[in-house]
Design brief:
It is built from 5 helices and 8 strands. By secondary structure, it is an alpha/beta fold. It has an 8-stranded mixed β-sheet, sandwiched between helices. A hairpin with a 4-residue loop joins β7 and β8 (177-181). It is globular, with a radius of gyration of 15 Å. The two termini are 26 Å apart.
Length: 182
């Protein structure tokens, strides 16, 4: 099934079991197209021109907030994809400690014709074929006890060594300007 995309924010990883799970998703050989970004809002640049995406987001945060300037940021990118009719289903795989989705924009988003679900369990993702996997580092939000930058680089190196299609998105100037490196 096409149009199924997986986004993995490494800030979700809090345990060795979660790291093992993410490693299995990356290294299982089922997906042959990857995107990487340091901040999560870089995903918006990749997907803003697509339609009818079924998005699965493994993340400690829902990223559905709004802001006064109506700009795309680490906490608003999902909201922008939904209101611009890019995402038709949003599946948030969260931690038990994640803050639930709530806020003044909830009615605007929920009035859109799309499906929104949250999950604490994540093993079901092994049964889904994803068109593409996006991995972001989110260094500002990582658990300080974990050093996940080498893990992030390992995922990129895996794609390079195995000649798997991948892009790296770098955000410049305080996260607002974007540049794609292939």
């Amino acid at each position: 099934m096409g149009n199924r995309y997986l986004s993995i924010d490494l800030d979700w990883i809090k345990t060795s079991q979660q790291l093992e799970f993410i490693n299995k998703l990356i290294f299982n050989g089922k997906t042959n197209k990857f995107k990487f970004g340091y901040q999560h809002n870089s995903i918006y640049e990749y997907y803003k021109s697509k339609k009818d995406i079924v998005l699965y987001n493994i993340d400690d945060h829902h990223d559905m907030q709004t802001n006064v300037m109506n700009t795309v940021s680490e906490c608003t990118w999902v909201h922008h994809l939904i209101v611009n009719n890019v995402v038709k289903e949003y599946h948030w795989i969260k931690n038990m400690s994640s803050i639930p989705f709530k806020g003044k924009n909830i009615n605007d988003i929920l009035l859109k014709h799309y499906i929104f679900q949250t999950y604490d369990d994540y093993e079901f993702l092994f049964d889904i074929d994803f068109e593409e996997i996006f991995v972001c580092l989110s260094p500002e939000y990582l658990d300080p006890q974990l050093n996940l930058y080498p893990v992030f680089k390992t995922y990129i190196n895996y794609c390079e060594m195995n000649q798997i299609e991948h892009d790296l998105m770098m955000l410049l100037r305080n996260h607002w300007e974007t540049q794609i490196k292939s």
